Amino acid sequence: MNKLPFQLGIHPINWVGEDVKEHGDATTCEQILDDIQRLGLTGTEMGRKYPTDPDTLREELGKRNIRLVSQWKSVLFSDPAYRQSELDSYRRHAEFLQSMGSTVISTAEVGGSLHFDPRRTPHEKEVLRLRESEWHILAEGLNEAGAIAREHGLKLTYHHHGGTVVEQPNEIDKLMELTDPSLVYLLYDTGHAYYGGADPLALLRKHYDRIAYIHLKDIRPQVLEEARAAQSDFVGCIRKGVFTVPGDGCIDFAPILQELVTRGYDGWAMLEGEQDPAIHNPYEYARRSLQYMESLYQHS
Questions:
Q1: What pLDDT is attached to residue 58?
Q2: Nearest-CA neighbor of 266 among 2, 8, 3?
Q3: Which burial class, exposed, middle or buried, applies to 218 when counting CB atoms under 10 A from its CB (0-12, 13-18, 19+)?
């Protein structure tokens, strides 16, 4: 049972990889949801093993008292040629999440990214950072999508993300500066903050007023250092085990948790590991991570 003062859920990516498809590929939806129920958690994000039919999904979640909090939505707003089709797709996404009683849409721009941009070719090696004009076009698109989210009782929460054009601290700052605070919120991710070169605590403090959703993820610094030395890209870093659950890496979650408690954060936070479940048992890692988080809260 969650003993923290905010709503705590867990992402199915702990059991089944989204970017690394072989991670947990044989795991079933039932296994994931049964484990989440055993952990005493009541929130999850959409995963690729979950049923896509809303009624079936609602039934599977409902019998375990689990709520669908969000679902990732890739967007390509930095290229105006994609704007209308992307907004149409965003509306359908919002309609689905609204029907599931969700609260936020995890949203990330894929333009320029190495792995997610449909315009890129497999042999390319680097993220293509945005030009100034593309930043403004992206911001316009996000504001429009944020309005769609709001129409459906949801918040667009922008997920700063490794291997994308909004990854580094200055890029997060720029996105927050260019977008409408009433339409575009921030999905604060501790692991992606560290991966992108930010101090997770400083990022939390700087943009707290825009944060409407949280992913709690840790980093193995030695693995990250070795992966960077080998010039591994983002997906390569996942394969090497750069990410883990809170309490198993180098991020100090005590001041992060203290900040959230002091400021009265009452939204959802998802526990995330994003590592090979064959090596790192998802249930056991999550159980230990929950104990770690609860012990920090008790001593805060």
A1: 98
A2: 8
A3: buried
CA 295 from centroid of its chain's CA atoms:
24
Backbone angles phi, psi at 127, to 5 degrees: -70, 135
Phi, psi of 70 (to 5 degrees): -165, 175
**If we measure between CA atoms, which residue out of 274, 294, 298 comes closest to residue 285?**
274
CA distance linking residue 265 with residue 211, whole number of Å: 9
The residue assigned the tokens 């979950």 is: 50
Q: CA 149, CA 96: separation in Å to the nearest integer?
A: 11
The pair phi, psi for residue 2, each rounded to 5°, is -70, 125
The residue with tokens 């669908």 is 68
For residue 107, CA distances in Å to 35, 83, 158, 165, 179 come to 26, 15, 5, 13, 13
Q: Tokens 């064959």 belong to which residue?
A: 278
**The token pair that represents 61 in the structure block:** 């979640």
β-pair partners for 211: 186
CA distance 142 to 145: 5
What end-to-end distance do the CA atoms of the chain give, in Å? Answer: 19
DSSP, residue by residue, 218-253 = EE-HHHHHHHHHTT--HHHHHHHT-EE-TTSSS--H
**Block means of pLDDT (10 residues each) for the chain, length 300 residues?**
88 97 97 98 98 97 98 98 98 98 98 92 89 98 98 98 97 98 98 98 98 98 97 94 98 97 97 97 98 89
Give pLDDT, residue 2: 74
What per-residue confidence (pLDDT) applies to 285? Answer: 98
Give me 24's structure tokens: 């947990």
Q: Which amino acid is at 218?
A: D
Q: What is the pLDDT of residue 153?
A: 98
